[in-house]
Each structure stands twice: as structure tokens, then as C-alpha cells.
TrEMBL record:
PANTHER family: KYNURENINASE (PTHR14084)
Catalytic activity: L-kynurenine + H2O = anthranilate + L-alanine + H(+); 3-hydroxy-L-kynurenine + H2O = 3-hydroxyanthranilate + L-alanine + H(+)
GO function term, MF aspect, one: kynureninase activity
BP GO terms, sorted: 'de novo' NAD+ biosynthetic process from L-tryptophan; anthranilate metabolic process; L-kynurenine catabolic process; L-tryptophan catabolic process to kynurenine; quinolinate biosynthetic process
Name by which UniProt lists this protein: Kynureninase
Organism: Spizellomyces punctatus (strain DAOM BR117)
Subcellular location field: Cytoplasm
């Protein structure tokens, strides 16, 4: 295990320079990275994942032996890698379906009857998001869940009808918010408050969020923020935001798509009203994986309006077929249909890995990985790091903002070397070393490949590389 709280005391390059001197090994050497990997108490988890080969991610034929090597996969913020245990779980369900048909709903050879399949993923999910199991539901997909929950928790009045979100929230969130506002008869231009960074900055200051809530809170019905901002990688101070919102009588909801499985969360303790997330990023549940939702227990017995369906009624009375809805006391009341079995066991395959560690230990390694990445990137010209330099204000991801016209050229060079990262046009590459399966050696290799790519671009594009990388808090 990592020492408790060590992640909160790391200071990027300074920490690594001290460690480099202690080890008497150059910070930018492959030997240093190898030592870090050797010390990593979580290194054995990498063997539990399918790591893509370079030849399979290049997208074209390249006749070099390097293509048999593993790709550098720093894209868990878009799609997590497949846990090796997932295939077996999915095949087991296919076998039960083939052998038993509908009987599998109640009689299951692996003790996972489909009628209650999501029971197997609730408790571990609750541990990851900091919730009681009664506060968690596994259902639908992220934006569908956001709509379902906003039906209950966005209850505008003539005096209190506005929604506060971050500027440049993920487009799907904005679409959902805009459509909900219009559904209730309000003008989005008036009803949606979008809070952005200060002039010349890339991320939003917490004090500006709190000040906005204090100033506009009497008109705000819902504060809806990301846990981790998808573009910049900023980890918002969710507890402070929740406290400030509650003091002004606002409902608090969070989109945790880029936060769940990435950073420690304590939704119950923070008093968050609701949250939702996807499971295919850091939770590694596969493309289009099933979504998750949180509803605080304080709303377990309430008259909040909601959309209902068969899977939200008392399971012991479900088959009476009497058209009497008997609500489940907890987040599961928001389920309307039976969850997809194959998607649910795909999530189970990943949660079985998570159950063998803790979010605190994963967080500690994550801070080390991104700190090491940041230290090696320092001084390389051609980009700015958008993500906060304070480890407490970021997760696994560093977002690199390149000079205009440079990003796509660099991305092509990275891809040709079997590096999988994520781009956001026109100028940002998101780099996300993930603690469950990425290594310090991969971070070192990535930076060397990036350095060569930038040098090549500089040779072919006059004046395209002029500024030094820097970190903006």
C-alpha cells in the first residue's frame, strides 16, 4: 500500500528531483522509470488487463518488429481497457442463455439470476463513489440517467429556475440541461448560468464558483457540475460546491463521467442530492457500458415526481401484475427496465479488480504517474498544460494545448508509434495514464516519443514550436 496522504504532498518536478538525487539516477532516464515501476505496489494489476499491441492500433501495415510490442494506451479517460476476467463472465452468461433460455432469470448455474443481476455490482460501485448501496442504481446510460434525475430534481419556480453549470461542459450535458429548461418553458439564455475561467486562465477558480452561488443562489434551482472537467482535467472541489449550494437552498447534482474510478468520491458524506456516470471510462466496463446513478438517502421517502417502470417497483410483488406501483425505497426506484445482463457482467469484470485495491491507493499512484509525466514534460516547447498543477485539483489526465496547426501533426506522429491518446480539436491532446494498468516506463517512453515528434514538426513547419510548456492552476 501507498503511505496515506502521500498524494496530497507531491509537488511535481520538485518531488522527483529530490527522489532522483536520493537514488542517484537521472530523472529523465529509463532506469529511473524502471525503479518507480519496481516500487509500485499496484504493478500486478496490469496483468489483469488486455493491453493492445501496436500492430492492432496503428490502423495500417508497418513492417517492423516494434509492432508486436504493447501500445502505449493513455486513453482510459475515453475507453478503459478490457479486464481479462470479463470475457469469461460474458461467455458464462451466453452459455446460460444457450442452455436455459428464460429459466436463467431465476435459475442460474453461476448464481447470478438475471432478475437480480445488478445486485452483483451495486455494493462495489457504492464503495467507489462513497455511497450506501441503497443510494446506487445501475441502469440506462449517462445522459438518460441525467434526464431521469432532472425530472425529479430540477423543479423550477418563478423565483428559482436557473441552472448553474461550468462553461464548456460536455456537450451532452449542455443538451440535456437546455432541453430540460425548454421543457419547463424557460429561455436557456436566461435560465442557464455558464461559469468559465477568468481571463487568461484555463480552469475555474473554486472561489469564483462559490461566489457565483452566493450571488445568484436565490435564483438557482440546480447546481450541476462535472466531477472532473473532460477538456481540462480539472477535479472540482465537489464538497465545497455542495456545501455552498445547500446553504443557498439549491439542489446539487454531479456528472461523474470522468471522476468515477478516477478520484476518491464521498457522495453520501458530501450531501450531494444526485449524481450519474458512465462506466466505460475508468471503470472499464466496455464500449457503451451501462450507466450508474446516485440518489441520497434523504430523498428515499419523498414525493418527488419521477418516471416509473416495472423495475422500480417492489420485486416481491412485481409479478402480481395488478398495476399497483409499490416504490422501492432507494435509488433503484429510478430503474424502469431490467438492466442489460451482458453489460452488467462486463462491469462486474472490472469491479472484481477494483475490489482488490482501494481508491486511496489508486489515487496515490495516479498522482505519482501524472506528477512524473508533468515533470518530464517541463521545458519541452510547443504546448501548454491546461490541467491544474496542484495534484489535488486533477485526476489521471493532463491536457496539452498545442500551438495552432501543430496538434494534428503531433498526433499523427504519436499514432504512428503506437501511442493511443485522445484529441479534442482544434489544439488539445488529452493524456491519461491510468493507475490500474499503466506504468512509469510507459510515461517515460511517451515523453521521448512526444519530444521526437515535436522536433520533427519543428523541422518541417517553420515557427510552429515557440513556447515552453507551463502549468496553469
Amino acid at each position: 500500500m501507498y503511505p496515506k496522504q502521500m498524494s496530497l504532498h507531491l509537488t511535481g518536478r520538485k518531488y522527483y528531483e529530490v527522489l532522483s538525487r536520493e537514488l542517484e539516477v537521472p530523472l529523465d532516464s529509463s532506469e529511473f522509470a524502471a525503479i518507480m515501476d519496481g516500487r509500485d505496489p499496484l504493478k500486478h494489476f496490469r496483468a489483469k488487463f488486455a493491453i493492445p499491441k501496436q500492430k492492432d492500433v496503428l490502423g495500417h501495415e508497418v513492417n517492423t518488429t516494434d509492432c508486436e510490442e504493447s501500445a502505449i494506451y493513455f486513453c482510459g479517460n475515453s475507453l478503459g481497457l478490457q479486464p481479462l476476467g470479463t470475457r469469461k463472465l460474458v461467455e458464462e452468461e451466453l452459455d446460460v442463455w444457450a442452455r436455459s433460455g428464460v429459466v436463467g432469470h431465476f435459475k442460474h448455474s453461476h448464481d447470478r439470476p438475471w432478475v437480480s443481476i445488478d445486485d452483483h455490482v451495486i455494493e462495489e460501485t457504492g464503495r467507489i463513489v462513497g455511497a450506501k448501496k441503497e443510494e446506487v442504481a445501475i441502469m440506462n446510460s449517462l445522459t438518460v440517467n441525467l434526464h431521469f434525475l432532472m425530472m425529479s430534481f430540477y423543479r423550477p419556480t418563478n423565483d428559482r429556475y436557473k441552472i448553474l453549470i461550468e462553461e464548456h461542459a460536455f456537450p451532452s450535458d449542455y443538451y440535456a440541461v437546455e432541453s430540460q429548461v425548454r421543457f419547463h418553458g424557460y429561455d436557456p439564455a436566461d435560465a442557464i448560468i455558464q461559469l468559465g475561467p477568468r481571463t487568461g486562465e484555463h480552469t475555474i477558480q473554486t472561489e469564483d464558483i462559490l461566489e457565483c452561488i452566493a450571488r445568484n443562489g436565490d435564483q438557482i434551482a440546480l447546481v450541476l457540475f462535472s466531477g472532473v472537467q473532460y477538456y481540462t482535467g480539472q477535479f472540482f472541489e465537489l464538497e465545497k460546491i455542495a456545501v455552498a449550494a445547500r446553504e443557498k437552498g439549491c439542489v446539487v447534482g454531479y456528472d461523474l463521467a470522468h471522476a468515477v474510478g478516477n478520484v476518491p468520491l464521498r457522495l453520501h458524506d458530501w450531501g450531494v442530492d444526485f449524481a450519474c456516470w458512465c462506466t466505460y471510462k475508468y471503470l472499464n466496463a466496455g464500449p457503451g457500458g451501462i450507466g450508474g446513478a446516485f440518489v441520497h438517502e434523504k430523498h428515499a421517502v419523498s414525493d418527488l415526481p419521477r418516471l416509473t417502470g416495472w423495475w422500480g417497483t417492489d420485486p416481491t410483488k412485481k409479478f402480481l401484475m395488478d398495476n399497483v406501483f409499490r416504490p422501492i425505497q432507494g435509488a433503484n426506484v429510478y430503474r424502469v427496465s431490467n438492466p442489460n445482463v451482458l453489460a452488467t457482467v462486463s462491469l462486474l469484470g472490472s469491479l472484481e479488480v477494483f475490489s482488490r485495491t482501494s481508491m486511496e491507493d489508486l489515487r496515490a499512484k495516479s498522482v505519482l504517474l501524472t506528477g512524473y509525466l508533468e515533470a518530464l514534460l517541463e521545458g519541452i516547447p510547443g504546448f501548454t498544460i491546461l490541467t491544474p498543477g496542484d495534484p489535488a485539483q486533477r485526476g489521471c489526465q493532463l491536457s496539452l494545448l498545442f500551438r495552432p496547426g501543430l496538434m494534428l501533426k503531433v498526433l499523427e506522429e504519436l499514432e504512428n508509434k503506437g501511442v493511443v491518446v485522445d484529441e479534442r480539436k482544434p489544439d488539445v491532446i488529452r493524456v491519461a495514464p491510468t493507475p490500474l494498468y499503466n506504468t512509469f516506463t510507459e510515461v517515460h517512453r511517451f515523453v521521448e516519443i512526444l519530444r521526437i515528434a515535436l522536433e520533427k514538426c519543428q523541422e518541417t513547419t517553420a515557427g510552429c514550436v515557440e513556447t515552453s510548456s507551463s502549468s496553469t492552476s
